[in-house]
Amino acid sequence: MDLMDKSEKGDGVSAIGGAGLVLVLEPRLMPRFFQMFQKGVGLKAEVGCTVRSFLCEQMGISTQYVDERIQTLFLDGQPVDQMEAAVIRDGSILALSAAMPGFAGATLRKGGYYSTMRSSITYKGEGETVSRRSGVVNLKLFNLLAGELGPGLLERGVRVKGMEIAAFLERQAEDFWAGCREIRLNGKEISRREVGRINWPGELVLQVYPSSD
Fold first, then answer.
1. Which of 43, 107, 120, 192 has a 20 to 30 A CA-CA distance from 15?
2. Which one-letter DSSP state was computed for residue 168?
3. Burial class for 130, CB neighbours closer than 10 Å (0-12, 13-18, 19+)
């Protein structure tokens, strides 16, 4: 089941702008990219909107999934209880997690019974007025959400640091390259050998698709 609308899917350069790397891989290799979401990836977005608007309208995640599956949210380091009141800014860091175990998880859960115990650090955002404009949101996904939302985000395209991609590809064993069906940089198909000679930019758009064979 698709958890998000992939209507923006396409070539990373034309769809999102900037240098673009496209990989087509055997589906079994997709989870290797999920760790990137813990560090955070950039998403082009219309900022100045609420967290709920960003998740449901821009990312295309269903309201039911947002309400039931995403249990813990941090916006710029502050836990969020009311997604309708928390405003996304250009460069904001939004961290999402499914339910976490233990007392700490119960305390951080949005709108949970123990949320009053962290009222001093909870996102308030009263009286905020932020104009809507194009920007970038830095998204982090933890535990089950990386596996559930990560594939759709990778197909749409995420902004990552060139040095991180270079290090990631350098760590991959032969089974990764054996399952790599296609590599395109800025729309041009390249070989595995050429990957090792790339002078990676400071940032680029990464898109990863599962192969159909």
1. 192
2. H
3. middle
- Rounded Cα gap, residues 162 and 199, in angstroms: 9
Beta carbons within 10 angstroms of residue 116's beta carbon: 10
The residues near 4 (Cβ < 8 Å, ≥ 6 apart) are 59, 60, 61, 149, 152, 153, 156
Residue 41's φ and ψ, nearest 5 degrees, are -130, 155
Given the structure tokens 């002078």, which residue do they identify? 199
| Position 19 confidence tier, pLDDT thresholds 50, 70, 90 | confident
In the 8-state DSSP scheme, what is residue 53? Answer: H
CA atoms of 195 and 60, how far apart (whole Å): 33
Concatenating the DSSP letter of every residue in 32-45 gives GGTTHHHH-EEEEE
For the chain, the average pLDDT equals 83
CB atoms within 10 A of CB 7: 8
